[in-house]
Amino acid sequence: MSASVKTSWEKWGPAMIEYRKVFNMPREYVELEYIYNALMKYYEEHPELVAP
After folding, report:
1. Domain spans of the chain?
2. Would you state the pLDDT for residue 13?
3. Is residue 19 scored above 90 in pLDDT?
4. I need a labelling partner for 1 at 20 to 30 A (CA). Which of 7, 23, 37, 46 fits?
5. Burial class (CB in 10 A: 0-12, 13-18, 19+), 9
6. How confident is the model at residue 37, as a pLDDT?
């Protein structure tokens, strides 16, 4: 699951952020962004768990 979160946000994150601005929907996709940021923090704290 972590790979799909990481891949999804890295691929679509910039478009989702732009979507928020264009349609004035600041809460749209915030859950995915939050999970991605938490995952990246976890990977920094536990580099042994990051897949090559």
Report:
1. 2-47
2. 97
3. yes
4. 23
5. buried
6. 97
